[in-house]
Amino acid sequence: MSQPLNITDQEILRYHLGGKIGLDLTKKLADKRSLSIAYTPGVARPCLIIKNDPDSVYKYTSRGNLVAVVTDGSAVLGLGDIGPKASIPVMEGKAVLFKSFAGIDAWPVPLENCRKYGNEGSTDIGKLVDVAASLAGMYGGINLEDIAAPACFEVEERLQRIVDCPVFHDDQWGTAIITLAALKNYALLTGKNMEELNIVINGAGAAGIRIAETLRSEGAGTLLLLDSHGVINKRRHDLNLYKKAFAVNTTKTDLADALKGADVFIGVSCPGLVTKDMVNSMAECPAIFAMANPEPEITPQEASKAMGKRPYIMATGRSDYPNQINNALGFPYIFRGALDTKARRISMSMKKAASEALARLAQMEAPDYLKDAYPGEKLSFGFDYIIPKPFDRRLLVEVSYAVADAACQEGAGSVTDLSNYRLYLEALAYTSEEDISFPFIIERFCQFGDQHTICVGRKPDGTKESFLCDPQFMDSFINDESIPGRQINLYLKKGKLVKVSA
By Cβ atoms counted within 10 A, which residue in 166, 243, 362, 432 is the most buried? Predict the structure, then answer.
């Protein structure tokens, strides 16, 4: 088991000094000619094309690869209601993950004055929806973040009805998608049927409600949902609309009672709520997903002491323990697949496709680069490895493709041809951002969508690879019929092919 990282406040604040994101231009502006193309008079041409063909906004602007990270700061991580300004480091962090893991440009949108009393009180749902909707024209997707329940449910639902791009509240769905993937592999490893599992979910906020909804749609067995007042049952009269959907007839009233004979505990609540006695009362070979952050409902050490030599599967939300159920395994790639198909929404089938891809990936043999990134850990499918690691570059290929394929199958987007999509994702996932040159044998050029040209070929040792071509430079070599089949030198800048030479 890896040890907690020793990180000082000084190191943390130095990293965040000046912020973590900035503007990176995708085209050169170097002379009078490029100025005339980038701005007036040249810029009028794409403007008129978009006016006559609104869908061409994806081709001639950055909208198709841009996500807004929207919050009112009402429920930030485990910090609670700290307000929109104090939430910015978290929103910047989200943008870093979008870019680093999936090549998506994301930008923080902390919204002021979207509460009942300015920046105080509960979320003003109507105002937050109206403001976010008014910004949607610039963005290919909206990632809602850290908005308190139950307002977050209505915000997402209402906003999605208004805008023409996917809306995804990661606090709701991200945890649910990763949890489903982990639960699939728990069932596979233990030989238990999903339909027969007795599942206890402690926490009925954004994550807990959507976990319950996702598991129910997957045909999971008995679900008991608890909030701070105990088991959500049909005798209670203090339930909101979303909790009522999971009220059951039961004599069980509290967490200790609910866990007796349970196969699965899923915690999205508070530290230290689960005792050794509670764990001991669970069914044979239980799953203990204690995901409260930064301190889980029961620590792996306490669970180990309680279980002794009996088999069980433990997961947390922390990176310093095995089986981290982390939203970063989901949202970058879910948006990648949605953006690349120009999807107007992220449906339940797209979410479940992401879960299935995550579960399958954990079952595959880990590549050497991943083993090197996690020294001392056994990255082999089993009780301590039921979910992929965040730095597994295959996530970008497998999860994004699964989401895009699901979008195409149900007609959620306007892109339907995925014949070269895997090559495009592999180029994104495995190409270094460093400026490099190396010998290569180009086999062909192909297209994905109306923006991405892909160079496909092999290195002299036979290794197959693909690279994205920079649209500003590709005219100089893409039509040269003498290139395919010959060994030439490739020049890559910021991960894109900009030049070839004999």
Answer: 166
Secondary element (H or E) of residue 441: strand 436-448
Q: Convert the pLDDT of each residue in 252-309 to its tens digit.
A: 999 999 999 999 999 999 999 999 999 999 999 999 999 998 899 999 999 999 999 9
- CA nearest 452: which of 424, 422, 483, 493? 424
Cα 201–chain centre separation? 22
Q: Among candidates 266, 267, 309, which has minimal Cα distance to 284? A: 309
- Alpha helices (H) in 82-205, listed in sequence order: 88-102, 125-135, 151-162, 170-190
The answer to whether the CB of 361 falls within 8 A of the CB of 424 is no
Query: Angle at CA 140, nearest 5°, toward 38 and 16?
Result: 85
CB 36 within 8 A of CB 49: no
DSSP bridge pairs for 316? 290, 324
Considering all CA atoms of the chain, what is the largest pairwise distance in Å, rounded to the nearest integer?
78
Q: Which strand (E) or helix (H) includes residue 33? A: helix 32-38
What is this structure's pTM?
0.93
Q: Are strands 198-202 and 167-169 parallel, antiparallel or unpaired?
A: unpaired
Active site residues per annotation: 39, 94
**Which pairs from 422-425 meet CB under 8 Å and 24+ separation?**
422/397, 423/448, 423/454, 423/456, 423/466, 424/340, 424/448, 424/452, 424/454, 424/466, 424/468, 425/336, 425/396, 425/397, 425/400, 425/401
Tell me how many degrees the CA angle 403-407-409 measures, rounded to the nearest 5. 115
Domains of the chain, earliest start first: 19-165 (3.40.50.10380), 173-316 (3.40.50.720), 328-416 (no CATH), 424-501 (2.40.50)
Q: Calculate the alpha carbon distances from 169 to 147, 175, 226 in Å.
A: 9, 10, 21
What gap in Å lies between CA 455 and CA 469, rounded to an integer?
Answer: 7
| Strand ranges inside 330-375, DSSP E | none
Using alpha carbons, select from 123, 129, 124, 128 the residue that is nearest to residue 159.
129
Which strand (E) or helix (H) includes residue 105?
A: strand 105-110
